[in-house]
Protein backbone atom coordinates (compact mmCIF):
# COMPACT_ATOMS: atom_id res chain seq x y z
CA UNK A 1 0.00 0.00 0.00
CA UNK A 2 2.82 2.39 0.93
CA UNK A 3 4.64 1.63 -2.34
CA UNK A 4 1.50 2.43 -4.35
CA UNK A 5 1.15 5.79 -2.55
CA UNK A 6 4.79 6.61 -3.29
CA UNK A 7 4.38 5.79 -6.98
CA UNK A 8 1.20 7.85 -7.13
CA UNK A 9 2.84 10.88 -5.47
CA UNK A 10 5.87 10.63 -7.77
CA UNK A 11 3.62 10.57 -10.83
CA UNK A 12 1.69 13.62 -9.62
CA UNK A 13 4.90 15.52 -8.89
CA UNK A 14 6.36 14.66 -12.31
CA UNK A 15 3.18 15.85 -14.04
CA UNK A 16 3.18 19.07 -12.01
CA UNK A 17 6.81 19.86 -12.81
CA UNK A 18 6.21 19.14 -16.49
CA UNK A 19 3.31 21.58 -16.56
CA UNK A 20 5.32 24.22 -14.70
CA UNK A 21 8.30 24.05 -17.07
CA UNK A 22 6.04 23.96 -20.12
CA UNK A 23 4.23 27.04 -18.82
CA UNK A 24 7.44 28.98 -18.34
CA UNK A 25 8.85 28.22 -21.79
CA UNK A 26 9.89 31.60 -23.19
CA UNK A 27 10.40 32.88 -26.72
CA UNK A 28 13.35 35.23 -27.26
CA UNK A 29 12.16 37.74 -29.86
CA UNK A 30 14.19 38.88 -32.85
CA UNK A 31 12.15 41.41 -34.82
CA UNK A 32 12.76 43.74 -37.72
CA UNK A 33 10.99 47.03 -37.09
CA UNK A 34 10.56 50.10 -39.27
CA UNK A 35 8.80 52.38 -36.80
CA UNK A 36 10.43 55.63 -35.76
CA UNK A 37 13.95 54.66 -36.84
CA UNK A 38 16.22 57.64 -36.30
CA UNK A 39 19.97 57.68 -35.84
CA UNK A 40 19.58 60.50 -33.29
CA UNK A 41 18.43 57.73 -30.94
CA UNK A 42 21.86 56.04 -31.06
CA UNK A 43 23.15 55.41 -27.55
CA UNK A 44 19.80 56.25 -25.99
CA UNK A 45 18.33 53.48 -23.84
CA UNK A 46 18.87 50.12 -25.52
CA UNK A 47 19.42 51.57 -29.01
CA UNK A 48 22.80 50.55 -30.42
CA UNK A 49 24.62 51.93 -33.46
CA UNK A 50 27.95 51.07 -35.03
CA UNK A 51 29.73 54.21 -33.84
CA UNK A 52 28.41 57.60 -32.84
CA UNK A 53 25.25 58.12 -34.88
CA UNK A 54 26.26 55.77 -37.70
CA UNK A 55 23.99 52.77 -38.30
CA UNK A 56 25.23 49.23 -38.86
CA UNK A 57 25.56 48.49 -42.58
CA UNK A 58 23.54 45.51 -43.72
CA UNK A 59 26.34 44.33 -46.02
CA UNK A 60 28.78 44.14 -43.08
CA UNK A 61 26.24 42.31 -40.91
CA UNK A 62 25.57 39.77 -43.64
CA UNK A 63 29.21 39.10 -44.49
CA UNK A 64 30.02 38.53 -40.81
CA UNK A 65 32.48 41.40 -40.40
CA UNK A 66 30.16 43.34 -38.04
CA UNK A 67 27.92 41.02 -35.99
CA UNK A 68 25.04 42.31 -33.91
CA UNK A 69 26.02 41.33 -30.37
CA UNK A 70 23.32 40.43 -27.83
CA UNK A 71 24.90 40.45 -24.35
CA UNK A 72 23.77 38.30 -21.42
CA UNK A 73 20.63 39.81 -19.84
CA UNK A 74 20.54 42.46 -22.58
CA UNK A 75 17.88 43.30 -25.17
CA UNK A 76 19.53 45.74 -27.58
CA UNK A 77 17.86 47.42 -30.53
CA UNK A 78 20.24 47.77 -33.48
CA UNK A 79 19.77 50.44 -36.16
CA UNK A 80 20.72 48.99 -39.54
CA UNK A 81 20.95 50.60 -42.98
CA UNK A 82 20.32 48.62 -46.15
CA UNK A 83 23.35 49.56 -48.27
CA UNK A 84 22.86 46.75 -50.78
CA UNK A 85 21.95 47.43 -54.40
CA UNK A 86 18.39 46.85 -55.54
CA UNK A 87 15.60 45.42 -53.39
CA UNK A 88 16.07 42.52 -50.99
CA UNK A 89 13.19 40.06 -51.31
CA UNK A 90 14.35 38.17 -48.21
CA UNK A 91 16.60 38.58 -45.18
CA UNK A 92 18.47 35.77 -43.43
CA UNK A 93 20.23 36.16 -40.09
CA UNK A 94 21.99 33.44 -38.13
CA UNK A 95 21.92 33.36 -34.33
CA UNK A 96 24.95 31.78 -32.67
CA UNK A 97 25.57 31.73 -28.94
CA UNK A 98 23.62 30.31 -26.01
CA UNK A 99 19.97 29.64 -25.18
CA UNK A 100 18.41 28.12 -22.08
CA UNK A 101 16.88 24.68 -22.62
CA UNK A 102 13.33 26.08 -22.41
CA UNK A 103 14.04 29.13 -24.59
CA UNK A 104 13.44 29.52 -28.31
CA UNK A 105 13.86 32.20 -30.98
CA UNK A 106 10.73 33.92 -32.31
CA UNK A 107 10.86 36.12 -35.44
CA UNK A 108 8.60 39.13 -35.97
CA UNK A 109 7.92 41.99 -38.40
CA UNK A 110 6.48 45.31 -37.21
CA UNK A 111 6.50 49.07 -37.65
CA UNK A 112 5.72 49.48 -41.35
CA UNK A 113 4.75 51.43 -43.40
CA UNK A 114 7.67 53.63 -42.37
CA UNK A 115 8.36 57.26 -43.24
CA UNK A 116 11.99 58.36 -43.23
CA UNK A 117 12.43 61.97 -44.22
CA UNK A 118 10.52 62.48 -47.44
CA UNK A 119 10.51 58.76 -48.33
CA UNK A 120 7.89 56.20 -47.36
CA UNK A 121 8.65 52.49 -47.22
CA UNK A 122 6.03 49.75 -47.38
CA UNK A 123 6.10 46.55 -45.31
CA UNK A 124 9.05 44.52 -46.64
CA UNK A 125 8.18 41.04 -45.43
CA UNK A 126 5.21 38.99 -44.28
CA UNK A 127 4.97 38.16 -40.56
CA UNK A 128 3.30 34.87 -41.46
CA UNK A 129 6.23 33.70 -43.57
CA UNK A 130 9.17 34.37 -41.23
CA UNK A 131 10.75 31.12 -40.06
CA UNK A 132 13.28 29.94 -37.49
CA UNK A 133 15.05 26.74 -38.49
CA UNK A 134 12.26 26.06 -40.95
CA UNK A 135 9.46 26.54 -38.39
CA UNK A 136 7.06 29.45 -38.92
CA UNK A 137 7.11 32.05 -36.14
CA UNK A 138 8.93 30.30 -33.30
CA UNK A 139 11.76 27.81 -33.57
CA UNK A 140 12.56 24.77 -31.42
CA UNK A 141 13.52 25.08 -27.76
CA UNK A 142 17.18 25.09 -26.89
CA UNK A 143 20.02 26.05 -29.19
CA UNK A 144 20.89 24.29 -32.39
CA UNK A 145 23.85 26.33 -33.62
CA UNK A 146 23.41 28.29 -35.74
CA UNK A 147 19.68 29.02 -35.77
CA UNK A 148 18.59 30.40 -39.13
CA UNK A 149 16.04 33.23 -39.07
CA UNK A 150 14.50 33.99 -42.46
CA UNK A 151 12.12 36.79 -43.37
CA UNK A 152 10.50 36.61 -46.83
CA UNK A 153 7.90 38.40 -48.88
CA UNK A 154 4.27 37.33 -48.74
CA UNK A 155 0.71 38.59 -48.76
CA UNK A 156 1.29 40.61 -45.58
CA UNK A 157 4.43 42.32 -46.88
CA UNK A 158 5.94 42.21 -50.34
CA UNK A 159 7.96 45.43 -50.76
CA UNK A 160 11.30 43.96 -49.73
CA UNK A 161 14.06 46.02 -48.16
CA UNK A 162 15.14 49.01 -50.26
CA UNK A 163 18.61 50.50 -50.70
CA UNK A 164 19.04 53.34 -48.20
CA UNK A 165 16.23 52.17 -45.91
CA UNK A 166 16.81 52.21 -42.15
CA UNK A 167 15.30 49.56 -39.89
CA UNK A 168 15.75 48.17 -36.40
CA UNK A 169 16.78 44.65 -35.53
CA UNK A 170 15.03 44.56 -32.17
CA UNK A 171 15.45 41.95 -29.45
CA UNK A 172 13.24 41.20 -26.46
CA UNK A 173 12.81 38.65 -23.64
CA UNK A 174 16.44 37.46 -23.69
CA UNK A 175 16.95 36.50 -20.04
CA UNK A 176 17.20 33.18 -18.14
CA UNK A 177 19.80 34.44 -15.66
CA UNK A 178 22.34 35.23 -18.34
CA UNK A 179 21.91 31.98 -20.31
CA UNK A 180 20.59 33.73 -23.45
CA UNK A 181 23.18 35.66 -25.44
CA UNK A 182 24.96 35.57 -28.77
CA UNK A 183 25.47 37.15 -32.18
CA UNK A 184 23.25 37.87 -35.15
CA UNK A 185 25.08 37.78 -38.46
CA UNK A 186 24.71 36.56 -42.01
CA UNK A 187 27.70 34.24 -42.01
CA UNK A 188 29.37 31.95 -39.50
CA UNK A 189 33.13 32.63 -39.49
CA UNK A 190 35.14 29.67 -40.77
CA UNK A 191 37.42 28.12 -38.14
CA UNK A 192 40.58 29.28 -39.91
CA UNK A 193 42.86 27.57 -37.37
CA UNK A 194 41.40 24.18 -38.22
CA UNK A 195 41.52 24.90 -41.95
CA UNK A 196 45.15 25.98 -41.75
CA UNK A 197 46.06 22.82 -39.85
CA UNK A 198 44.38 20.68 -42.48
CA UNK A 199 46.33 22.41 -45.25
CA UNK A 200 49.60 21.86 -43.35
CA UNK A 201 48.86 18.15 -42.96
CA UNK A 202 48.13 17.84 -46.68
CA UNK A 203 51.34 19.69 -47.51
CA UNK A 204 53.47 17.50 -45.27
CA UNK A 205 51.91 14.37 -46.74
CA UNK A 206 52.74 15.58 -50.24
CA UNK A 207 56.33 16.30 -49.23
CA UNK A 208 56.74 12.84 -47.71
CA UNK A 209 55.36 11.27 -50.84
CA UNK A 210 57.88 13.00 -53.10
CA UNK A 211 61.03 13.11 -50.93
CA UNK A 212 60.94 10.37 -48.32
CA UNK A 213 59.03 7.60 -50.06
CA UNK A 214 59.53 8.31 -53.79
CA UNK A 215 58.95 4.69 -54.83
CA UNK A 216 56.12 3.85 -52.45
CA UNK A 217 53.36 5.48 -54.48
CA UNK A 218 54.60 4.52 -57.94
CA UNK A 219 52.49 2.08 -59.85
Description:
With 219 residues, the protein is of the alpha+beta class. The chain has one domain. It contains three helices and 16 strands. The chain has helices at residues 2-23, 58-62, 192-212, and strands spanning 26-33, 47-48, 56-57, 68-70, 77-81, 87-88, 90-98, 103-110, 114-116, 119-121, 131-132, 135-136, 147-152, 161-162, 166-172, 181-185. The strands form four sheets. Strands 1, 2, 3, 5, 8 and 15 form a six-stranded mixed β-sheet that branches. The protein has a six-stranded antiparallel β-sheet with strand order 4-16-7-13-11-12, with no helix packed on it. A hairpin with a 2-residue loop joins strand 9 and strand 10 (119-121). The longest helix is centred in the first third of the chain and has 22 residues, at 2-23. The protein is globular and about 75 Å long. Mean pLDDT is 81; it is low at 13-23 and 189-201.
Amino acid sequence: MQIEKTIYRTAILTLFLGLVFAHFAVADIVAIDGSGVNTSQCGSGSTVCLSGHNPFLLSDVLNGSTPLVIPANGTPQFIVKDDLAGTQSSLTLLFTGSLANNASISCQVSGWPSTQGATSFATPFDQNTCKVDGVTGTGPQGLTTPQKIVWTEGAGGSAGLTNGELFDVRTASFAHAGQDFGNLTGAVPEPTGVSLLALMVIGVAGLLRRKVFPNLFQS
